[in-house]
Amino acid sequence: MILLLIVLRITGLEPHDGAPGLWLKGNLVTTPVGDWSLTGQIPTVKLQTQSSYLLPHSVTINCVAYNGQLYLTSVYPAGARTRSWNDNVMRDPHVRIKIGDELYDRTLSLVTDAAEQEGVLQARHKKYPELKVPANATIHVFHVVG
After folding, report:
1. What does the angle CA 87 – CA 72 – CA 9 come to, to the nearest 5 degrees?
2. What does the pLDDT look like over 14-58, one tens digit per residue?
3. Helix H segments across the chain?
4. How far is CA 2 from CA 7, 48, 92, 112, 120, in A?
5. Domain spans of the chain?
6. How far apart are alpha carbons 35 and 140 in whole angstroms?
7. What is the pTM of this model?
8. pLDDT band with cut points at 50, 70 and 90 for residue 6
9. What is the distance between the alpha carbons of residues 144 and 32, in angstroms, rounded to a whole number?
10. How many angstroms separate the CA atoms of 125 and 142, rounded?
11. Rounded distance, CA 114 to CA 98, Å?
């Protein structure tokens, strides 16, 4: 089992084709990003969270730049089971985001301000007009900090 984990750590096993993965591999960026508008042309990013069973959990998700800041959103129908990455972030907000080949270690902060949420969701609709928000949907908006 330990040998398998070592092999997986080296290879990464990133998410693909809608399936989750484990570790993200790439070039770690340690400098601050002052303006995340560059993500406006990037359809998806990869997000690595820490699962409760001590292994990373990574997924491919949408991203939205709003007022130069980066946000991640999670929208799903009322009554649907929560997403694993949402649960992981609520427990431990430290994440790794992969954009292209660049890795960013950041913290996610749940947005509770209604005006900020609405602004982000409007930016999301503009970037992804095909993505509709179901009636009575559960919506989580996370601000990428750091």
Report:
1. 65
2. 887 788 888 999 999 999 999 999 899 999 999 999 999 888 999
3. 2-11, 84-91, 114-127
4. 9, 21, 24, 41, 42
5. 2-145
6. 22
7. 0.89
8. low
9. 12
10. 16
11. 28
**CATH architecture under which domain 2-145 falls:** Roll (2.30)
**Angstrom distance (rounded) from CA 90 to CA 5:** 25
- Range list of β-strands (E), 20-131: 27-29, 45-50, 56-61, 64-66, 69-76, 94-99, 102-110
CA distances from 81 to 20, 137, 141 (A): 16, 12, 17
φ/ψ of 88, rounded to 5, equals -60, -45
CA-CA distance, 127 to 120, in Å (whole number)? 10
Each residue's pLDDT tens digit, 101-138: 999 999 999 999 999 999 999 999 999 999 988 889 99
Per-residue b or e along 25-52, where b marks 16 or more CB atoms closer than 10 Å to that residue's CB:
ebeeeeeebeebeebeeeeebbbbbbbe
